[in-house]
Amino acid sequence: MTVSFEKKIKPYPHWEYSNPEFDSSIRIVPERGGLITEWRSEGKELLYFDLERFLDKDKSVRGGIPILFPICGDLSEGYSNGGKKYFLKQHGFARDLPWSINLLKDKLGIRLKLTDTKDSRSYFPFFFTLWMDVCLKEKSLQISIKIHNQSQESMPFSFGLHPYFQVSNTQKIKIDGLPEKCIDQTNMKVTNVSDQIRILDKGVDFLSYPSSSVKMFDFLSRNVIELIHQEPMDTTVIWTDPPRQMVCLEPWTSPRNSLITGDRKLEIKPEEYIDLSTTFQHNSF
């Protein structure tokens, strides 16, 4: 098997990892939050990516697979630790910081790495190292995360991914595997999943707790994207942003505000670590 891993300049500076055997590749920009900007499977580009917006560094990214840490969603009222109040912006800071990148020893993927900084400790007062291994398999992207708490106190956090999948038409989408009820994150009220799916083209932002996997069918391209959950990263958020022809199918560990509410909040004890994983599978029908 001959894989390649090289730095490229066009159409923007990035690293490209490819596996010709599967006609698959990913592009990554470690300096921009470890962002995976493209994923090709069997020659098909699956991710939505707004290049023009990406090139404007004053704007948040719309596309690729942003990394959410140490919170998912917002934390508008801040959180307390050691008698002091801290504030984090939407989805935390990992998506804004530079990561390092290396080829895995078995050459089956790449490893991204993020460590705390003096600046990050001013709003998240913990020492940590976060590794994210991205393995390109046949028709799938397997992502494994290890978070090591190097502080002398327990570290609360949430972790998530925010992948943007391009679709032919948001009105021609079917999503299977979700429970009947979900939480509309625009008003935090319980509502029907079926009602949300009907208005994907109008813009939705809802969270649910599936049991195993969620499948999204694109009836025009005939692509199927399956999000295969692994506990505790088994909360699903669906988000659309019309008129963009994309659907975000996001695995989170915890809902927004979990550091305050305690709902599915995760903590890592001092000098310990936690492993997380998720898989995106691509098929056709």
TrEMBL record:
One MF annotation (Gene Ontology) recorded for this entry: carbohydrate binding
GO biological process, one term: carbohydrate metabolic process
Stated name of the protein: Galactose mutarotase
The species this protein was found in: Prochlorococcus marinus (strain NATL2A)
